[in-house]
Amino acid sequence: MKIGIISDIHSNREALEAVLNKLTNVEQFYCLGDIIGYGADPIYCLEKMKEIDCLCIKGNHEGAITGELELYYFNDYAKQSLEWTMKQLREQDFHYIHSLPKKVDITNDILGVHGSPRQPLWEYILDEQTAEGIFNKFDFKVYFIGHSHVPGIFTFHRNNRIIKYFEATAGADLVLDEKHSYIVNCGSVGQPRDGNPQASYVLFDSEKGVINIKRVNYAIERAQRKIIKAHLPHFLAQRLAIGI
Ligand SMILES: [Fe+2]
């Protein structure tokens, strides 16, 4: 099966459209949270998830909407954009966001979560030490994650237990093998933070066991203009151009 996995759309319609235009042959979509927050098109992005029958889970921004996470813990930019987003959302959007689970099974040992299996909405897996804790505690072949907005791959050798990290700033291709387990960060569709402003997404061929992390250009200036027009913090527009 050809599977499209996206994360951290963050209300960026232009980035989402560019990614979906690249994923036209996909049979099933998954979104690993943070559909909303930061950007100017929350309703469009939520509606698009339903339109493409995307299996979505909550991110920390959805957790803020449902009250599972207090706004207090978010930085000022996130907080301001979440307050703005809450004013845009309709009743059915709140229902939809509340209905989202925190984890998803793609197959029996290929799973998805926003942050980490330990703390689905909040924990970042940014280094080998944190990844080691996850590989040791949970039994899986692949965990797809988002949250950090930095695409990359942790590999864990099941025999010698060596963990390696591969960044995917320019994309990456991974062929699954018998010896390893993997944590794959899909990066962010709508607000990349690895210095590459291109939208990030994943194509996963579950029959071949091949994972491609890919990047695509999108209409950044249009997304920026909408953020400014909505009176959201200017920094949220500026950062899109430089991928921070
Ligand atoms: Fe995010």
Descriptive notes:
- The protein is α/β, with parallel strands linked by helices and 244 residues long.
- The protein has one domain (2-242): Metallo-dependent phosphatases (Purple Acid Phosphatase, chain A, domain 2), CATH 3.60.21.10.
- Helices cover 32% and strands 23% of the residues.
- The chain is built from eight helices and twelve strands.
- The protein has helices spanning 13-22, 42-51, 60-66, 76-88, 91-99, 128-137, 220-229, 234-242; strands spanning 2-6, 28-31, 55-56, 103-105, 110-113, 142-145, 152-157, 163-167, 172-175, 180-185, 199-205, 210-216.
- The strands form two sheets. It has a six-stranded mixed β-sheet with strand order 3-2-1-11-12-9. Strands 4-5-6-10-7-8 form a six-stranded mixed β-sheet, covered by helices on one side.
- Helix 1 (13-22) links the parallel strand 1 (2-6) and strand 2 (28-31).
- The longest helix has 13 residues, at 76-88.
- The radius of gyration is 17 Å and the shape is globular.
- The mean pLDDT is 98.
- It binds fe (ii) ion.
- Fe (ii) ion (FE2) binds at residues 8, 10, 34, 59, 147, 149.
* Overall pLDDT level: 98
Low-confidence stretches: none
| Multimerization state | single chain
User: What CATH first level would be assigned?
Assistant: Alpha Beta
Silhouette:
globular
Q: Give the helices and strands as they follow along the chain.
A: EHEHEHHHEEHEEEEEEEHH
Distinct compounds present: fe (ii) ion
Helix share, percent:
25-40%
Q: Tell me the β content.
A: 15-25%
Q: Work out the number of β strands.
A: 12
Number of domains: 1
Radius of gyration: 17 Å
The CATH superfamily title: Metallo-dependent phosphatases
Can you count the helices? 8
Q: What gap, in angstroms, lies between the N and C termini?
A: 33 Å
Order of strands in the sheet with the most strands?
3-2-1-11-12-9
- CATH architecture term: 4-Layer Sandwich
Largest sheet: 6 strands, mixed
CATH topology: Purple Acid Phosphatase, chain A, domain 2
Structural class: alpha/beta
